[in-house]
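Sequence and structure are no longer studied apart. As an example, we show below a sequence and the tokens encoding its fold:
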Amino acid sequence: MNKMIRNRVEEVSNYILKTKQTVRETAKIFGISKSTVHKDIQERLKELDLSKYNQIEKIFKEHIETRHILGGQSTKIKYQQIKQNMEG
């Protein structure tokens, strides 16, 4: 594995462990695609550090379990803002 890629995988994985950010948010921070983040974690990190990979998988599972709640909250806020704009 290329040293540059290895360094990116380590940086991305450390960032996710530290902040518990989503794949999308992590991709924005590092200026890479979501696909690259997935590949870095699912394939490359699994190869480099299985323990760290397992910790990140737990974080991602939490994200999946709560995303419907967050989506509902986001939609509620959106329509509250529309209502305020129409009234205001």
